Amino acid sequence: MAEAHAVAHDDPNIGVTGLDHRKLGMWAFLGSECMFFGSLIGTYLSYKGKSINGPGPHEILNIPLTSVSAFVLLMSSLLMVLALAAVQRNDMKWAKVWLFMTALFGSGFVGFQCFEFTHFVHLGLTLHTNLFGTTFFVLTGFHGAHVTGGVIWLLSLWVLALRGKLGPQDSLKVEICGLYWHFVDIVWIAIFTLVYLIP
Amino acid sequence: MDASHSQAPSHGHEEGHASVGTYIKVAMVLAIVTAVEIGALYIPGLPPHFLVGFLIVMSILKFALVVAFFMHLYYDSKLLTALFVGPLTIACAIILALMALFGSYILLQRG
Description:
The complex is a heterodimer of chains A (199) and B (111).
Chain A (H helix, E strand, L loop, with lengths): L1 H9 L10 H27 L9 H4 L2 H26 L3 H31 L8 H32 L8 H27 L2
Helix pairs in contact in A: 2-6, 2-7, 4-5, 4-7, 5-6, 6-7
Chain B lengths: L19 H22 L6 H23 L7 H24 L10
């Protein structure tokens, strides 16, 4: 305990737990996000198959297209950890490349989602059409908004790196951004299976 | 050096995290599992209950791999694991409770 207090005096970001407040805070935030998305997924599944008019999921969901976008988001997680590893070993050239590529893959995912939403609206499915439309757009829309926020965060780090204001001493900033990014990825793993793949 | 990076490198980890090689292996497993999941949809005659169970198990595997290795929870403090797994358990309970309340079952259909 005394050692933990000594550490706390050395670095104002380290508390009695011996962990950085910023990282602890991010994990607490991600815990609350689990419950947020849990409620949205639970609502979608509760109303699944209860729409009284079409179109329904089996008529409208494009699994091959969404599989590509899911794969893109999954691989962006690999690029994110490569960016973190590059920052930690002070390889800023590759850190910039991986950060930009992660943001690019994230933007690609958002682009796929915009295309999908537009296509569904043209097919007659909107937020007001039926229970499926309401729960589907709210769930995937909130996820897409989270991905968009993540892309903006990644681009901010990339700009900092370009301006020489990001170094190995800032690796925790990249790690915390990475935690958020991986979280949106695991939420999509759940959504992809429960909404798209399960018949 | 922050606490999260203070663990001594062990088992080939860098700064208490996985190595780049481990990251690439995990990504390959994730890609293969995703391909298997999608492939399973196109196998004719697969019992629906088996397919649903298989897809859920595969997604739990992918979820666990990302959390453990990409989010470094496998190497980090147990307090962080508790901080994440606690609310995740509540979230799963919320999903199951809502489905039970609304009579929606994806594995066992109401007879």
